[in-house]
Amino acid sequence: MRGLEICASVLNADMGNLERVSKELEKSGADMLHFDVMDGVFVPNISFGFPVLEAVNRSTNMFLDVHLMITDPLRYIPETVKAGADLVTFHLESKSDPYETIRAIKENGAKAGIVLKPRTIFEEALPFLSLVDVVLIMTVEPGFGGQSFMEDQLDKIRSLRKIIDEKQLDVKLQVDGGINDKTAAMAAEAGADMLVAGSYIFKHETVALGVKALREAVRRTE
Ligand code: DX5
Ligand code: ZN
Fold it and tell me: Taking ligand 2, which is a single-atom ion, which protein residues have CB atoms under 5 Å away?
């Protein structure tokens, strides 16, 4: 049995009360806080940046998982880690050199991960599997919370799971987008190690109930 990690995305949380949200998440049983940075160019939306990440970092001791949906992630790695990121994931489709970006993240003292958009084939990740801590597979087009899980991405999760297991690589598979009780079970069965969930968790009366519901859905598949 793999210990599945729940990453709570604050993208659609109450931004006016981010400190309270962070404190609630800390007690919710979620394994980490997922923070989506968008620049309005790489994706058609703008979310939040370093001052907000710093504020979150001040208000919680949670592990901070920062998903950069920006055009040139390499340029902003020092600021991202300085603002509190423990894990930085960036898109292979961005314009930064992936090798240099992975090196920069590690040199700045954080864990590193690559992200694949739905239309990026799994083979693109292969050269980096032994260099990163996490591979994030998007199961929606990045940019917005609340979209539907793309089931056609399950094969990508299975393919990478198989290779990681065969080669006994020390890299985790993270899945992000459209995760709810049903799709969490599908992603877990396909081989995910980490599930990012935003709107599903926050639509519950408390975030703790949302996290609990996800864990129960996944447990049923084990
Ligand atoms: C989308 C973001 C996700 C988003 C997930 O671009 O990367 O992390 O917050 O939201 P839900 O869980 O609502 O699909
Ligand atoms: Zn994300």
Answer: 36, 67, 176
Query: How far is residue 190's CA from residue 23's CA, in Å, rounded to a whole number?
Result: 32
Q: Which one of 6, 9, 93 would you pick to mutate in the ligand 1 pocket, going by the greatest count of ligand atoms within 8 A of its CB?
A: 9
* pLDDT tens for each residue of 132-169: 999 999 999 999 999 999 999 999 999 999 999 999 99
Active site residue 36: yes
Confidence (pTM)? 0.98
Q: Is 173:164 a contact under the CB 8 Å cutoff? A: yes
Q: Is residue 185 within 8 Å of 220, Cβ to Cβ?
A: yes
Distance separating alpha carbons of residues 169 and 113, to the nearest angstrom:
14
Residue 178 one-letter amino acid: G
Q: What is the Cα–Cα distance from 105 to 111, expressed in whole angstroms?
A: 7
Q: What element of type H or E holds 26?
A: helix 18-26
Which residue in 31, 39, 176, 193 is the catalytic one? Answer: 176
Of the candidates 130, 133, 123, 149, the residue with the CA atom closest to the CA atom of residue 217: 149
What is the distance in A from the centroid of ligand 2 to the CA of 127?
Answer: 22
133 has catalytic annotation: no
**71-88 pLDDT, tens digit each:** 999 999 999 999 999 999
> Which domains are assigned to the chain?
5-219 (3.20.20.70)
Q: Which residue has the tokens 């996290």?
A: 211
Question: How many CB atoms neighbour CB 67 within 10 A?
Answer: 28
Q: Spot the catalytic one: 31, 36, 39, 65.
A: 36
